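Q: Is it fine to ask for two folds in a single conversation?
A: Yes, each is treated on its own. Send the first.
Q: Here.
A: Result:
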Amino acid sequence: MTANTHRGEIAVKLGGVQRVLRPTFTALSQIETITGKTIQELTAHGIACALSLNDMATILHCGLVASGDPADRAQVGQWVIDGGGAVEFYQPVGMFLVYGLTGGRDAEDDPDQADQADDTPGEPMPGRAIRSGGWWRWPAGVWAGLKRAFGGPPRTN
């Protein structure tokens, strides 16, 4: 399955197979319910590279299920370990969480912020969100900092 970046989907290699994480309302709600943390808290933990393995497995599992992948949460956790450990998955998980926070919105969605954008039509997230202004600028800006810190575009293994 190929990730649709305009929908906010993230490609990630788990279990030796390219898979897709889809940030849907149901997936994000389940993540909050299972972890007992808000998406904002999880994003902050992801930025600090401080997500627990349980939280990471839950985030990945819910994103996979939302995209139609029948993965089992315990299996997803094992794939994380087998794929190089949690450190290898901070970028795709971080992108997934940022997409969930911004909802793929840009300044054209908010007339009050439209004059602040120099948006490229059709550009995938999070690039759009970084230039869009509004409350979603913070997580997108943080994601840009993560990309710089880890040296470029996210790895998908």
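Q: Second one now.
A: Result:
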Amino acid sequence: MRARVAAVLLVAGLGAGCSAAESVPPPPPGPPAVTSVALSAPADLRVATAETRGDGTGPGGAPVVQWSVDWELRWAPVAGAASYAVRYASAEGVPEGAAPDDTTTATAVRVTAAAGTSAPERYATERDAGLLLTSSQLLVSVAALGPDGTEGPATGWVPVGDVPADGRPVTTLPHGH
């Protein structure tokens, strides 16, 4: 029996003079600990629009303009941020504590604010009306997310589609979450 135990120990790599604890390699190191970072709200918010327009022909050969206006909110990077939480709200209510609608590692979010097909003489009026309607109904807010998922303070709610002359949006409501 003693010879059999010795053979098992040798096959298992536990030769004479070694204990089981000495022969077992240490476990691999785990992932590095992620620490929480103090984050600030995204600053230096800027907005702009990018418009696409295509002239075409509608029913009966009438000229039409197919158009789309994208609205872009940009911000300065937040030190320590791994990504950004983007939330949308409607004019019907601002959701308190809602999960982000989107996350991005970019420092910008782009939304199609208005689009349509118009008669050339109505194009500018219908485009402006579409942007006004969106800005009165859709809001966006952004917060920095740390590497461990903690969320910093958010920007106030910014109306989508609204572009002040200086490109600096006016927040409509503070964002409490």
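Q: Anything structural to flag on that second result?
A: Two points. Confidence is low (pLDDT under 50) at residues 1-21. The longest strand covers residues 46-57.
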